[in-house]
Amino acid sequence: MNRGFGLATLRGWGQKLVAPIDGPLMLISGLLVLLAIGIMGSASPDRLNAQLVNVAVALVIMRVLAQIPPQRLMHLAVPIYLAGILLLIAVALFGDISKGARRWLNLGFMRIQPSELMKIAMPLLLAWFFQQREAMPRMRDYAVAAVMLLLPVGLIARQPDLGTAILVFAAGFYVIFFAGLSWKIIVGLGLAGVAAMPLAWNLLHDYQRHRILTLLDPEKDPLGKGFHIIQSTIAIGSGGIFGKGWRSGTQAQLEFIPERHTDFIFAVYSEEFGLFGNLILLILYALLIGRGLMIAANAATLFSRLLAGAVTMIFFTYAFVNMGMVSGILPVVGVPLPLVSYGGTALVTLFIGIGILMSIHGNRMLVQK
Amino acid sequence: MEFKNPQEELERFRSRLAFAGGFVLFCFSLLFIRFVWLQIVQHDYYQTRAEDNRISLVPIVANRGLIVDRKGEVLARNYSAYTLEITPSRAGNLEKTIDGLAEVIEIEAKDRRRFKKLMDESKSFETLPIRTRLTDEEVARFIAHRYRFPGVEIKARLFRQYPGGAFASHILGYIGRITDADLEKIEAKEEDANYRGTDHFGKTGLEQRYEFDLHGVSGHEQVEVDAGGRAVRTLTHTPPIAGNQLTLTIDAELQRIAELAFGDRRGAMVAIEPSTGGILAMVSVPNYDPNLFVDGIDTQSWRELNESPQKPMVNRALNGAYPPGSTFKPFMALAALELGKRRPEQAISDPGFFNFGGHHFRDDKKGGHGMVDMYKSIVHSCDTYYYMLANDMGIDNISAFMGSLGLGQRTGVDIEGESKGVLPSQQWKRERFKKPEQQKWYAGETISIGIGQGYNAYTPIQLAQATATIANNGIMFRPHLVKYVTDTRSGEKRLIEPEPLRDLKLKPEHIEVIRHAMIGVNKEGTGARAFAGAEYVSAGKTGTAQVFSYKGAEHKTESMAAHLRDHALFIAFAPADKPTIALAVLVENGGFGAQAAAPIARLVLDYYLLGKKPKAPAPADEDAVEGDEE
Predict the structure, then answer these.
(1) Contact flag A180-B54 (C-beta cutoff 8 Å)
(2) How far is Cα B468 from Cα B465, in angstroms, rounded to an integer?
(3) What is the pLDDT of residues B211-229, one digit of tens each?
(4) How many Cβ atoms from other residues are within 10 Å of residue A77's Cβ?
(5) B218 is catalytic
(6) CATH code of domain B57-88+96-248
């Protein structure tokens, strides 16, 4: 009797615990994380335990986020954004310099990277902004949104951290795109962007220009700037259809692949699991994105629709930019492979995104109430 | 506020979502196409590149071939030793590094100088030895301090060693570090791949001439390396094939006795087996120690060797050209017989001089030798006989015959850089001089040619070859030092076949006259004192070549500065009836041939024919004279 009661109670707690969690999202991201752990076991076994801790922390945060209703998040949008901007300014003034870039803020007890916060804060704010203008947004609203977007992007790009700047920009842009910015303006801006490329070129740092030049002709400087790209494409190409097998990639195991546990982990995976493995990874990402877009399509409010769409597309940006750069079709920018690369910060950010998606999905019926 | 249609808004949002979804699929397709391109289409290419990354081919240098004498005595071998090597480009401040090393391991000033010279000659990424032949203790001491010295390492290397030191150095030559000029030779032979990892190359002597035989075939190891270039494991191991062994025609003991016989005198001796052309001994003294060159010689030692007035680096046997003096006379006599200019019994009356155009060409013997036939002209070395003979023959006849004996021509011995010497003729003079009055050949110049003076200048090996040719009844062989080359892999012996250069088709009766007269020299003539009591019959001829000519004056050997004294020469073959050895000896500034050169020949022949080993250098016989004193 007691025992039955106890079991029922336990089951009840369990149900409560998993209730806000979306099965499909959990399944797909869980598979990606398992795959990541497998790759980490090959690319950098020393870091396996640390990454497992990162995963546990990120899952807890996801579960917390999944419980927070979108309305509560909406209220947090402006304060988080403003805090983010202030922190970015603080970084620009007092930040620690590491590897030639000023990205970190030392709070005494911990170092934080405020630009990471912006990846979520940005879509949150813009989704809130368009929610406030429930009517058809006007050109002026888009202009205001653009300013709110470009301010942090500019600050991040100056650090310089082109990778994060692109991700933050993309996150904000998706909101504006889903809010209905007219195609004419999108195309017009796109053309203007192409036209402004020479100007942008001048604004780039030398190392950023080198990365672009390196992409165009990596063999020009095989031991210097082209080394990363050459070695990662060799790793991928030599992997063939089925790969060389787990922990048997010579490029990976003999340390020819640089940063093989972080940004270039895809080269390790691709060398050891081949085209077949790549296809599985692409399918997992596509399913994750598909599930996210489905959640967006069924979301209750404009805010949650825009937020869900943008957050989903962040995953796409990460995945495409990372795999594109490692396989040599995009310049090298510091973008990790989502849910796979080593590192707690990116993992937490991405699981916050997943948590938000789950929350939005859990609250999709609110409008009917 | 505008009219708002939630349904329409939712539709538009969903269409944007659909577009975004389409865009995602499009981009992922691009990635997939890229993967297909890299992993299927270009797979082989990248597979190769990954293998190239992974596998490093480490050459293993082959053991250099041994050089042994005809009886198997080892003259050049290899030993393994530890060296301390520095890669200048990785070592940072070199001075400081070497100073630091000197605290751990003894480094002499000589080592520093040698290292500096090596550095000037090589590229900064090559590793260069600062110390060689480290003891085990030194190796241990360095390893304990290794962390202090980036770019410095201990290597086990094979070294060439010439166990005899300076012995036979002009035959063996030496090896040294590969230079750009050597690289060109390697490339010309298309041996580049085989020389990857080889540091040394034959520079002179047999080491140079037989470089590609001695080098062997490099082996290699396929080693898996990581991105830092560190070896992770060995994949395959192809052992090297040691270089071929050279077995020489040289008789090391004979060579040793001949070198010893010279004492501290300068000179050369070449002894040839007449029936094959195989060189039994080839001396050029003073010698030098080829071991000095193996690890790179330091500048000071090099300068000392090069600038020494003794000229130890010159191979006098091949590169010293000397007037043959009276050793020329048997060849002149033979020419006269062959050309029908003299009969053996035809005698001249020698008043002690030959008058030509008012000029007296003096004979060594005051008052002359009286009636002189061909036998006597050789046995007592009568100058007047040959003044007249040369005048009768004319320069071009002399030149043509001497040329057929190989004088004034490279013999083709298997060492590079042999000199030609001077075989004077009208044509030679036309080509040699620029001014027309110098280009003309004067009949008076022919006279002194007859006694081996004048423009005549031949190398000791040429004289030995000409002597051997007479000993071998006119059949001339190419002199050579290597008897056979043993292929390491098959054990097969590649014989260096005796190569008959030409048959002079000399009349046997003419050779018999010369042989008889040369036997007379050693029996009752100028060589008699040196060969007193010999237990074999030998044929010889003494010679004295003027270094400096004193016009009209009597020259007194004792009072002359040493470097102006005449060169002593001696040619010989034995046993006279069936010669197994023919030789030419030259002692620079030795005075009379009978005095300085003949005793050396005696020691050499005594050993070669009887196995007698002398205990001291050949005595200089101060009482012996060139001319007949009877």
Answers:
(1) no
(2) 5
(3) 999 999 988 888 888 777 6
(4) 23
(5) no
(6) 3.90.1310.10
